[in-house]
Amino acid sequence: MRETKRQSIIGTVISDRMDKTVVVQVETLKQHPKYKKYIRNRKNYKAHDEENGCELGDVVRCMETRPISKEKRWRVIEVIRKHYVSTLEVEDPDVIKQKKEKKIEEDKSGQAEAVVAEAEEEEKPETGEGQ
User: Fold this and answer.
1) Three-class SS of residue 79?
2) Which residues contact 109 (CB under 8 A, 6 or more apart)?
3) Burial, 22: exposed, middle or buried (Cβ in 10 Å; 0-12, 13-18, 19+)?
4) Is the sign of the CA dihedral 40, 45, 49, 55 positive or negative?
5) DSSP 3-state assignment of 18?
6) SS3 category, 77
7) pLDDT value for 101
8) In sequence order, what are the residues at sequence separation of 6 or more whose Cβ sits closer than 8 angstroms to the Cβ of residue 18?
9) DSSP of 56-76
10) Which CA distances in Å does 112 have to 78, 102, 105, 108, 115?
11) For position 78, what pLDDT does the model report?
12) pLDDT exceeds 90 at position 32
């Protein structure tokens, strides 16, 4: 590959909904001159992804290029790190639904038991006072 003076940026893919286009968010930290606090600066770039190989969360390197469209001036060179979802994080929708139903049933039965217990407590003091 020949040497170029084009800028390159490293960022995270935050959108891949467009065809052959991804939105890359680049985050930089700058220190405030007076207060010395680090300020996080984020900027979004639209980049050309020829193979549609990028997914949400991927860390990619982009290179400056000629204008491809109204807002695209960057091209994805490589995917540095793929974002993956652990199988432990993904649950089957049916399992989630069953858990919710079970929780609702427990809440209803707990409320019914509480109502019965309150009714019994109200009866006991009355009989206790009379004796």
Assistant:
1) strand
2) none
3) buried
4) positive
5) coil
6) strand
7) 80
8) none
9) TT-EEEEEE-S--SSSEEEEE
10) 60, 15, 11, 6, 5
11) 95
12) yes
